[in-house]
Every structure is written in structure tokens, then in C-alpha cells.
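Incident log, entry 3
Record: Quinol monooxygenase YgiN (105 residues)
Problem: checksum mismatch between cached and fresh output.
Input:
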Amino acid sequence: MAHISTEDNLFTIINLGTVLPENLDQVMTVIPDMVRAMRRMPGFVSANVHTSDDRTRFVVYAQWESEGHFSAMRQEPALTAHFGRIRDLVTQFTPLTCAVGYSRD
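Fresh output:
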């Protein structure tokens, strides 16, 4: 589960995806499969997905212990097919690396 704190110093990536509404269900099948593979990788902390009410956008919020762990995951051959499936389903994909600026429970 995500723990959002300015004190954790985790590497955070937020992926913003745009998708045709009829493709969202497929995206929401691929992402959990991808996360199951990521969970076994060193440095993985959490991943969460939010979908827009109009089914045209989704947000993936992922945390890693470091940027190095994230970069190593991106090179993992077992995940390459998942990345390709996502690229085939989305019309736009924007990754944002972030630091937590503020968090309140």
C-alpha cells in the first residue's frame, strides 16, 4: 500500500494515460499483471491506479526505493511485453517523476 510522506525519500513516478473508453478494461487487465511481475523486483514499494469517470484517462502512481531500482525494472525482459501491450492500447502516455511536496493524513 502506498505511504505518501515527505520523509520517505522514495522515487515516485506518476504515469498519465489517455485511452479510448473501449480499451480501458484491457488496460486494467494489463496493469495488474505488470504490477504482479514488478512486486518481485528489488526496490518495489507500491503501485496504485486511478481511472477517470469518463473512462478516457488513467493514472498510475508507483513508488520505488530509488531511481536506480526503477531504472533496473525498466530493463527487465519479463516486463517488456507488458510495456508494449500498454503502448498498443493508449493514445497518449506521459510519465512524470516526482517528489512528495506535501502530504497530510
